[in-house]
Amino acid sequence: MIMRRQAVGRSEYYIAAMRRWVPFLWKEPHALLAGSGWFMLTCLPLVTFGPALIALTHYMRLRERGIKVSWRQATALAFRQCGARGWLMGLTDGLALFMAGGCALSVLEEGLPLPIRLIYALLFIVDLLYLMSGMYRYPALNAEPGAKVGMMAARGFLMALNNLGWTLMFFFAQLLALMICALTGVGLFILYPAAAALLAACAYESMLRQYLPDTQDAEEEQA
Q1: What are phi and psi of 133, to 5 degrees?
Q2: For residue 38, what are the contacts with CB-CB under 8 A and spacing of at least 6?
Q3: Which of the residues in the chain have pLDDT under 50?
Q4: DSSP 127-183
Q5: Farthest-apart Cα atoms in the chain, separation
Q6: For the stretch 37-71, what's the b/e string if a residue is b when 16 or more beta carbons lie within 10 angstroms of its beta carbon?
Q7: Tell me: the pLDDT tens digits for 20-71?
């Protein structure tokens, strides 16, 4: 009975994340346009992808809470307070994406022995899970700019693995948003980045409420 209550409470947290995310997309489209626009300009060199995503997550999280924030303040957090941590996290995501693509191609390669194919398939799953954990890693580093990248990576990976079902739900919600924005062409660049970052922030906060419910409730009262 206790486990059932815990499961119900947990699902309420995640459903609340979706209820925060979806209405904001309709009510505040200008925030999506502003966030995505600044993000695209900031990450144009590509190597600044990590800090730019941290800034976008910070910007969208505060906008959803009704707190005024400028992109200059968001970038100050990402590039100054996070320092090289944001750069390193973006680099690891790029490497994971490259490795996932290579493993996928290797699995599909003809004539490859079955044991080797299984190893590549396992590596592909690990890389994909690490990429999905980004929806927790970037908001976590956003909340704790001075934390070590290794600790944030481990936290995000464990959150994704321990709550795989809900992580997949959030991930597929991001994919659905990606497909919808891709159909509009320009929406892929001016709407999707901010929408995905906002869902990541909502998902992380909902996930965190499992472990620190009192702290999260107090933050909501202050907000």
Answers
A1: -70, -10
A2: 55, 56, 59, 71
A3: 1-8, 215-223
A4: HHHHHHTHHHHHHHHHH-TTS-HHHHHHHHHHHHHHTHHHHHHHHHHHHHHHHHHHH
A5: 61
A6: bbbeebbeeeebbbbbbbbbbbbbbbbbeeeeeeb
A7: 898 898 888 899 999 999 999 998 888 899 999 999 999 999 999 989 899 9
